[in-house]
């Protein structure tokens, strides 16, 4: 048996000690997989090996977004085996999409429906929807009900608790996000990235090499988005030229009457007057 095969076998069997010993010895761990689909990173996520998962991503450059057998992501593997620490790391440090679906149309929450810890964590992120339907029309909540009827783990109280929270904070409500900044600081590029990652295959934190963006030079452009990372938002892209400052202040005041908002102030930290720009926009924002 080759060194690569022995390493793969250790991962597949869940032999942590042997896997850690062999991993530095193999060449190209990114190319080792079961039947060409389930990679070492998938197996590490399945096994709940947070240390090995981190090493595979940071040291060996394995892709945390790669798909395994059946189109499953690392989140699917971790959720199915109730490894919350791995879920936390993948979602918040590696920006993996908790609403990614496999070839059956199932999200990680679908696969976690019978595991209390994973269900509670995934719902607590605010990024997972218990009403999302798979290819059979089944929701995670329905799968949890079926599990309860079979006498398995009862996760229904967890779903109910988070559903009650959503009822008090309706999912169709939108948050104003006000994007402001001086010309040339990359504000239009950030607006483009937020729009492009709303529902596309690339998640917000992993968007790279943005080009061809035409800066917006007049007025305000509102975008109403159901963003898979940011939630339900209305993104207001404000032109950065100084002649619009007074009108911007008036619009901001009207937008925020009776509701809150989030300001994204974009400045070029390489410029000498970056702090001055930031102070200037903070002044506009609170006028």
Automatic annotation (TrEMBL):
Coiled coil region boundaries: none
Entries under InterPro entries matching the protein: Ankyrin_rpt, Ankyrin_rpt-contain_sf, P-loop_NTPase
Keyword tRNA-binding included in the entry's annotation: no
Superkingdom, taxonomy of origin: Eukaryota
Keywords: ANK repeat, Repeat
ANK repeats: 70-91
Keyword Cytoplasm: no
CDD domains assigned to the protein according to its UniProt record, in alphabetical order: Ras_like_GTPase (cd00882)
Protein name from the UniProt record: Uncharacterized protein
């Amino acid at each position: 048996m080759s060194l690569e095969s022995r390493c793969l076998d250790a991962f597949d069997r869940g032999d942590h000690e042997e896997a850690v010993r062999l991993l530095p010895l193999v060449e190209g761990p990114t190319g080792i997989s079961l039947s060409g689909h389930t990679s070492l990173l998938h197996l590490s996520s399945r096994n709940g090996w947070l240390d090995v998962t981190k090493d595979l991503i940071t040291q060996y450059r394995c892709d945390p977004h790669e798909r395994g057998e059946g189109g499953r992501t690392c989140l699917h593997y971790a959720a199915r085996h109730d490894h919350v620490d791995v879920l936390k790391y993948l979602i918040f440090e590696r920006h993996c999409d908790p609403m990614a679906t496999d070839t059956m149309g199932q999200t990680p929450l679908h696969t976690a429906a019978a595991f209390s810890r994973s269900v509670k964590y995934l719902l607590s992120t605010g990024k997972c929807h218990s009403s999302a339907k798979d290819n059979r029309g089944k929701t995670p909540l329905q799968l949890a009900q079926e599990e309860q009827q079979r006498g398995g783990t009862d996760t229904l109280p967890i779903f109910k608790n988070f559903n009650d929270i959503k009822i008090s904070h309706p999912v169709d409500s939108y948050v104003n996000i006000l994007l402001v900044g001086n010309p040339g600081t990359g504000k239009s590029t950030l607006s483009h990235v937020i729009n492009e990652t709303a529902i596309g295959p690339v998640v917000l934190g992993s968007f790279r090499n943005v080009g061809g963006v035409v800066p917006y030079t007049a007025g305000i452009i509102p975008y109403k988005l159901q963003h898979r990372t940011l939630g339900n938002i209305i993104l207001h892209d404000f032109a950065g030229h100084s002649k619009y400052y007074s009108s911007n202040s008036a619009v901001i005041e009207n937008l925020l009457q009776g509701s809150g908002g989030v300001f994204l102030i974009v400045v070029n930290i390489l410029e000498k007057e970056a702090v001055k720009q930031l102070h200037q926009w903070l002044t506009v924002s609170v006028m």
